Amino acid sequence: MSEQPSIPLLPTTTLLSRAQQQQQQQHQQPTDFPAVIRVQNLATTLLTASHDAWNRPNRLQPCLLSCSISFKHPFSSASSTDTLAGGDTIHYGILSSTIRDTVETNFGPSSRHSTTAEGGSGTTTQTVLAKIWQDLTTTSYNGTPSQVKKPGLLSPSLERIGLLSVTVTLPRASLLGEGVSFTASAMYNGAGEMEARAMEMNINRLRVPTLVGLNENEREARQMLVVSVGVDGVAVEGDKYFVVERAVVKALEESSFETLEALGAHLMDKVEEVFVNGRDYTVHVKMEKPIAVPTAECPVVEMRRVVKDYYR
Questions:
Q1: Cβ distance 7 to 31 under 8 Å?
Q2: Residue 150, C-beta contacts closer than 8 angstroms, at least 6 positions apart
Q3: What is the largest CA-CA distance in the chain?
Q4: Among 72, 273, 37, which Cα is nearest to 192's?
Q5: DSSP SS3 for 191
Q6: Could you tell me which residue ranges the Dihydroneopterin aldolase/epimerase domain spans (predicted)?
């Protein structure tokens, strides 16, 4: 999918902040979005898209779909009439059906491509995300108009939407973690036009025995670390989570650092080595050390770094 430079690709936190500022400016007072519709972790199955935990394409695996729609105005009509006919909300049942039907029709076991599932390089997770976005808004997630003439489910409502977010989670796409997720987000202006967007990839809660710590006893044996890695500002196409996870796990297995701070910087170096994005991005590392403090759930160290990747 081609880039559209006129639609800025921002870090997700920056996008959320900008959308919040726009909402406050419109209402001339500090305010959050007054109404939100969410569908969380809608379960389905992929066959003809994404890669599994061993980086094999076109393998049957579970998929969780989430969507969040933040509205600029309250549900005045729906709340006063107790009906959905006023058009100021979205039927979450229809939203759920649209998202799931998109995935099952195009990428599921009974999809039209399922007979050619074995072999080939496979369709990426971002393609799944892009197809969902297209069927919701009639545009791609980078703002490019779709060639499909049928209006998307949310197309008539984009003027009322301040922020839209869609997440595709693959809970079995990580060998040592709790799954991989891609999230596309965008903010819209009063004309229903996309103003800015974000794309992030997260590898969630890798559990790796690691030699790390200052204390004498911590130098004698490895202890379990729980590490999450995020790449925010993904511009490159492809399921890069396998190579990122492999690099992070290898670094953890070879670790002899005394502090999480030094280990975190090393992990970000390794992500930077293997993830070539073609433009700047932010890498985020969260490290949990569950048994370090017996009376606490776990100490946590989080680190972020902007990677100047544009000229690589």
A1: no
A2: 138
A3: 68
A4: 72
A5: coil
A6: 201-305
Residue type, 282: T
Reported in sequence order, the residue ranges of the chain that DSSP labels E, i.e. its strands, are 35-46, 61-71, 161-170, 180-188, 194-210, 223-232, 281-288, 300-307
Which residues does 20 contact at the CB level (< 8 Å), separation at least 6? 32, 33
Q: How many Å apart are CA 39 and CA 69, to the nearest integer?
A: 9
Give residue-wise pLDDT tens across range 236-257.
Answer: 888 999 999 999 999 999 999 9
- Burial class of residue 271 (count of CB atoms within 10 Å of its CB; 0-12, 13-18, 19+): buried
- The tens digit of pLDDT for each residue in 217-228 reads 989 999 999 999
> In CATH, which of 3.40.50.150, 3.10.120.10, 3.30.1130.10, 1.10.1370.30 is domain 12-307?
3.30.1130.10
pLDDT average, residue stretch 278-295: 92
- Is 242 within 8 Å of 206 (Cβ atoms)? no
How do the domains of the chain map onto residue ranges? 12-307
Torsion of the alpha carbons at 206, 207, 211 and 212, rounded to the nearest 10: 70
Residue 207 sits at φ, ψ, to 5 deg, of -110, 110
pTM for the predicted model, two decimal places: 0.90
Q: From the CB of residue 3, how many other CB atoms can be counted at a distance below 10 Å?
A: 13
Torsion of CA 145, 124, 69, 134, to 10 degrees: 30
List the helix and strand counts (H, then E) for the chain. Answer: 6, 8
Task: Please name every residue paired with 185 in a beta bridge, in sequence order, or none if there are none.
Answer: 165, 198
Task: Find residue 203's DSSP bridge partners.
Answer: 180, 229
Signed CA dihedral, 8, 14, 18, 19: sign only? positive
Distance of CA 297 to the CA centre of its chain: 26
Per-chain mean pLDDT for the chain: 89
